[in-house]
Amino acid sequence: MATEIKRVATTPFDDQRPGTSGLRKRVRTFQQPHYLENFVHAIFASLDDCRGKTLVLGGDGRYYNREAAQIIIRMAAAAGFGRILVGRDGLLSTPAASVVIRKRRALGGIVLSASHNPGGPDGDFGIKFNVANGGPAPERFTTACYEASRTISEYRILDAPDVDLSRLGEHTLGDTVVEVMDPVADYAALMEDLFDFDRIRSLFEAGAMRIRFDAMHAITGPYAREILEHRLGAGPNTVINGIPREDFGGGHPDPNLTYARALVEMVDADKSIQLGAASDGDGDRNMILGHRFFVTPSDSLAVMAANAHHIPGYRSGLAGVARSMPTSQAVDRVAEHLGIECFETPTGWKYFGNLLDAGRATLCGEESFGTSSNHIREKDGLWAVLFWLNLLAVKGESVARIVGNHWRAFGRNFYSRHDYEEVDANRAHAMVEGLRARLAGLPGQTAGGLRVATADDFAYTDPVDGEVAEHQGIRILFDDGSRIVFRLSGTGTAGATVRVYLERYEPDPEHQGLDTQTALADLIAYAREVADLKTVTGMERPTVIT
Ligand code: G16
Q: Distance, CA 386 to ligand 1 centroid (Å)?
């Protein structure tokens, strides 16, 4: 096909600094002339050399995914990529993109998603770049992108018609091959390698296990149908909300107790359902439920670490574990028991990449509903569900019993996150700065019977490459190991989201059955007071509690 590279003059936008996970903005922001193109140019300009290399491309199917995919294909061809691997219909979950980048030895991949943020014309869109190890681009790369976005004066794009992404096969675009691939196949094959599909399937076939998976009208629908319903025989009604929609059916594809309420009610109402699970917009988050029982992501990570030896893919043991700083310390106790390293990193999956690459961590997790392992370099929603399914199949116990036994053995870390959304950004930043300035005066203060031991502003030095990340959250640490952490979200698109993370350790099984908010009441009251949350946020209570 005759094609020509167009050079298009443009001017910089001043708001293209990537956040915790790529660039996330309102759809309408991305629809401005040149907005997407400028950022894609910035990504390509930050790569060493893309001539003849392979690029992976796909997204969570949200509104603007299709148009964006076509623009990126034309720009990638103009940049000289030799091959573009794109999921059918422009779809790929975040974990599947990580699988494909690694398996096909791509230079990297572009994932179109704003994760759990709502979609549709009035919703959010996002774009992130993953590097050759399959993981999110490290800070130095995103900084380079931002710098490139500030000096751009033109971008290059192929003058060519849209590529038909609806059918598998290869197309030629100038000197570039565009390969439309099955978005599910490589991912599903990897899952079969890691988990005991035969054992799980036999339980489903015998009618001894029932589960419900809520795909929230987002990307995991086709993956869950193929893996849970077809390969594992979990039954035709296992996956609910399984058809991906551009606006996620009007919902908020965030798998937590607030936004996956319908699933929670379904599982709570039916004792014969052993496992309820949900995943988010791009398939990297997970929520795990038992009958009338919610597993916090922090506990999920700890239980996985303690039981990994039951799972085929991890039978040889764990090299180490890693958690983001605000994630509860439950997994630390497991690591100590196992005699393995435990790393505390800043929020953001990118910080796990070096530890995984260096073979120092096998399992990683975050309080923000993310868990995964060294099988890829992203968090992985369905992987977590399969891990729990495999565990249920091996143990023959309920989710609640597995977690309860874990608490008896290791103690319980009561844990909750309180979010205050759409807060005035200046006030939110002033709050964090105010706390930072008062850190030295906090030790000795009390919250109920607890006493502040130390307070700091979390900084992390990567043990592999020595890179330092500062100002990653205000930590208030109490003398019994309890903690309060304050930080501002790096993924919101409107105002600021203040996150308050609360944790208290309870070793005594007699007291482990308390309601979480009750167990944390003293810390909650102290947090509101010390940060003057009512004045700062103008809110009586958080908008979301997880
Ligand atoms: C992203 C990152 C996670 C992070 C989460 C919340 O997840 O990949 O590492 O924990 O955001 O970040 P924040 O607290 O800054 O909003 P996702 O699922 O949104 O891509």
A: 22
> What is the phi/psi pair of residue 372, to 5°?
-170, -175
Report whether CATH 3.40.120.10 matches the domain 187-410: yes
Name the one residue in this structure whose structure tokens are 């106790």: 333
- Level-2 CATH architecture, domain 412-545: 2-Layer Sandwich (3.30)
pLDDT of residue 402: 98
Domain 4-183 has CATH 3.90.550.10: no
201 CA → ligand 1 middle, Å: 33
pTM: 0.94
The residue annotated as part of the active site, out of 46, 98, 115, 279, is 115
The tens digit of pLDDT for each residue in 157-168 reads 999 999 999 999
482 is catalytic: no
Domain locations along the chain = 4-183, 187-410, 412-545
Check residue 493 and give its pLDDT.
73
Terminal CA-to-CA distance of the chain, rounded, Å? 53
Most ligand 1 atoms within 8 A of CB, residue of 366, 500, 546 to mutate: 366
Give residue 21's pLDDT. Answer: 82
Q: What's the order of all strands across the beta sheet hosting 211-214?
A: 239-240, 211-214, 275-279, 286-290, 293-295
Fold matches, 4-183 and 187-410: yes
